[in-house]
Amino acid sequence: MAKLPIRPRRNRKSSAVRGLMAETSLSAEHLIYPMFVQEGTENTPIDSLPGCKRWSVEGIADECSRLYDWGIRCVDLFAVVPEEKKDAAGSEAWNPDGVVPRAIRQIKKTVPGMCVMTDVALDPFNTYGQDGIVREYPDGSYEILNDETVEALCRQALCHARAGADIISPSDMMDGRIAALREALDAEGFTWVSLLSYTAKYASAFYGPFRGALGSAPKFGDKKTYQMDPANRREALREASLDVAEGADMLMVKPATLYLDVIAEMKEKTTLPIAAYHVSGEYLMVKAAAASGWLDEKACMMEALLSIRRAGADMILTYAAPDVARWLRDEAR
Ligand code: PBG
After folding, report:
1. Which ligand 1 atom is at minimum distance from the Cα of 201?
2. Active site (annotated) includes residue 254
3. Which fold has domain 27-332?
4. What residues have CB less than 8 Å from 28, skipping those under 6 apart?
5. DSSP for 180-192?
6. Tell me: the pLDDT tens digits for 232-268?
7. Which of 176, 229, 256, 269 could disulfide-pair with 276, CB 3.0 to 4.6 Å?
8. 76, 123, 133, 204: residue to mutate for ligand 1 pocket, most atoms within 8 A of CB
9. Which protein residue has the closest C-alpha to ligand 1 atom 3?
10. Does 265 sit in the ligand 1 pocket, CB within 6 Å?
11. pTM over cut 0.90
12. What is the pLDDT of residues 94-112, one digit of tens each?
């Protein structure tokens, strides 16, 4: 017999022993499910996001009851806005009878325990498909106005808070919006409404399927003057320290699996809970490869999400949330 007293494989010798050693776990309570809500009574499947739908207000509330039974405790709402309701200012974003405030009220009535998060940004609402207010110049150039956008975001957030939102999640990347949102919410007495900041949101090509789902792709240009350069890691920490100082309750890194280093660093250098957004393109890569028979969907999706947790994310926004909740429930049986 070889003399080898130290054998790491002993700690992997059976499923029970591996369970004892597991450093990271994934459960439904860590998941936030992004959902799309539209006008009308139809629930329409989304081609670019297999398994997801654009829900009616009634439909989303009923689906939330099912999700709640499977263990999903938080959803994030995005509006699908018909072209005729879009304008240059994005004013549908703070319409108290818009689909998002109506969906919040309906979900809260149907499933009071569900935590309702809402996305705050103007891209689904303005004719430009940009997250902020656009100023166009005669020479064809344009600018995304920061401070004017922040005012609009405050109107949108207040509209959601008045409808009963628990968490406001600004995805726009404007400067100073966390402080402004906190002040606007507190001034109306919404001191209990939380802010989950998209702290390090990168100008990623992996948002394509989401923009397809909402019809919100930029009509011209890109988002590089506000979303971060994928080349940068230290800049994420700079954004994090501002969000901490401005009063964010949670910080987010987005996308997730390609930015695990950023998640790990932000977890280490701050004391706030960290969220990661496993975005549409990351979800679709696994779905599409599984549909073609090349990858095992469940194993790959679970591995991707577990890796995001291992990197340090406390919570994960993912389109796979319902599947994962069902897989975990079936395994526990
Ligand atoms: C826009 C927004 C985007 C996503 C969430 N909020 C797209 C973008 O910035 O263009 C992407 C989500 C995904 O790809 O799953 N405010």
Report:
1. 9
2. yes
3. TIM Barrel (3.20.20)
4. 70, 71, 72, 73, 321, 324, 325, 328, 329
5. HHHHHHHHTT-TT
6. 999 999 999 999 999 999 999 999 999 999 999 999 9
7. 256
8. 123
9. 207
10. no
11. yes
12. 999 999 999 999 999 999 9
